[in-house]
Amino acid sequence: MKYTSQSVAKPYFIAAIGLFVGQILFGLIMGLQYVMGDFLFPEIPFNVARMVHTNLLIVWLLFGFMGSTYYLVPEESQTELYSPKLALLLFWVFLVAGALTIVGYLAVPYATLAKITGNDLLPTMGREFLEQPTITKIGIVIVALGFLFNVGMTILRGRKTVISMVLLLGLVGLAVFFLFSFYNPDNLVLDKMFWWWVVHLWVEGVWELILGAILAFTLIKITGVDREVIEKWLYMIIAMALITGLLGTGHHYYYIGTPEYWLWIGSVFSAMEPVPFFMMTLFAFNMVNKRRRQHPNRAATLWALGTGVMAFLGAGVWGFLHTLAPVNYYTHGSQITAAHGHMAFYGAYVMIVLTMISYAMPMLNGRDAANSNKSQVAEMWAFWLMTVSMVFITLFLTGAGILQVYLQRYSENPLPFMVVQDQISLFYWLREAAGVIFLIGLVVYITSFFIKGEEARLTKAENVISD
Amino acid sequence: MNETFTKSMARNIFFGGSLFFFLLLIGLTTHSVRGLPEQDNRQNLTEEVALGKKVWEDNNCIGCHTLLGEGAYFAPELGNVYERFGHSKEAIKGFIQSRPVNGIPGRRSMPQFNLTDQELDAIAAFLKYSSEIKANNWPPNIQG
Ligand code: HEM
Ligand code: HEM
Ligand SMILES: [Fe+2]
């Protein structure tokens, strides 16, 4: 660690991992409710578990992005963070607000929560992923502003690199597009249109800038490849991301009451959205192949390569699978959507945060560069357990989705939704089993942090260049 | 990537391309919003329907159901439930009202929301209004 203020990243990473565990537990609860409908009913109805699952996901990814930023920006800017105190204060504000919100979901019926948090004054609740009480949303905006101020001041004060500027642009975009969550017109079609300005323009827009910047940073550190080369790649990746992804929003405007021309615009542009993800894969592998030094943190290298591959599979391949309008006509809102949502979120955003944690955590824990070999081996086991089980979760949901689409929407005698759900329950059982493996992987992951041992180091011959 | 293609060229493609397509997105969105009255059934967007949307949101119905294909995949599509229930608001209200408090052993069940009569009327009106939105012929059939 080059700057002491980078250490504020640590609590962010720890909180992220803690909330990740919560997310997966609620995923498993829901997975069981899919096959045992009365499980935990009426104490934790499915919709409550789902809010907890998806909101924890988003909140822990945000913790991960913020922690990554606090680690990355001082090093790129070559100066201490503007205000480490503010960073710590915002950490606690965000954690407490997040925890209270989750407790609210679980403790009282959602309608009661809406009432006591004043949803009547400014109704923003009850929309997928944006279920947070309006006051929580306002809190998120305040935390985001404080965070951006802190990071912006640091960058202004120090060296301005392409990586930190791209990261900042992505983070500003994240905050700006979140503001659309406050727009909730009575008109359902308008509501849906602009709901996607948060959700789509996040994951297929500005978040890709954050992803690209963090990936570029870790690749520079791990491979020692020349900054000029890395920055050129970064610009091309994010250029393709926005050129395809902005109008790619149209793939959500097919069947929600918006004009017909989106069938064409959405299909054409979103069909090209896999390109930036494919470039990320090439980027990661190319840089690692061209490396000018061996880095003792092999686990971090594995995560970085894995991010490239899995983001392309989940977002690129599974996204393309259902993105053309005639296909989406049948798959819209089915288990195919869930399959894609899982692998895309995991492959792109979970894995990039875990890449950064893998790279930074040894230094945050006072080591020179890497954990012990034993610890790294455990971490790499966790990588494979989580990644492979996520592939299987995706495959089982895809199987369920294909059958669902056929039985309910395509065959001669379409069957009712609930009848079809019963017929495909085998796939849901298999998904749940894969989910248990995922949880085991996560436990191994956490265990790896507690495995001590002497730091892994390279021999002189291995260590070609050091900086 | 080769040497003749410089970083500043890449940067210009990023800023130029992003700005161009962002402006295009804004333009197309504005155009769509102007054209929405043709499709979005706003002539039937009464106060009761607006209240129905509020009831829909305050009870987080989207946490189990899809509406025009968006939401959760645990329970049936409701964008066309008005048609599936024989064009009957009464049938919709009756279904919501009769959910058992403690669920159905071994099966997925919808919670009992204890809605008032006014709320029941409103949610049924909202679902009727939703079913009349022109969504490019989606869903493919009555099963949603
Ligand atoms: C990392 C990037 C991505 C993430 C995290 C992601 C995640 C998601 C999620 C969670 C949904 C479901 C939204 C809902 O609940 O309604 C969704 C829907 C969708 N995604 Fe992605 N996605 C990504 C990239 C892509 C890409 C690159 C494509 C196209 C090539 C794509 C195509 C689609 C389509 C067509 C839908 C709508 C599915 C439907 O009609 O039900 N996604 N995505
Ligand atoms: C490991 C065990 C997991 C299980 C059993 C599980 C289960 C589920 C279930 C049952 C749903 C609701 C689907 C529906 O609406 O009917 C869901 C939604 C979701 N989960 Fe998971 N999940 C798991 C892990 C994850 C992970 C690791 C991620 C992120 C990387 C994730 C991200 C999501 C997202 C984004 C949604 C919303 C999907 C959409 O709207 O299309 N889940 N999950
Ligand atoms: Fe999208």
Automatic annotation (TrEMBL), chain B:
Any Pfam family hit: Cytochrom_C
Keywords for the protein's UniProt record, in alphabetical order: Heme, Iron, Metal-binding
Cytochrome c domain mapped to chain residues: 47-131
Protein's name in the database: Cytochrome c
Organism of this sequence: Amphritea atlantica
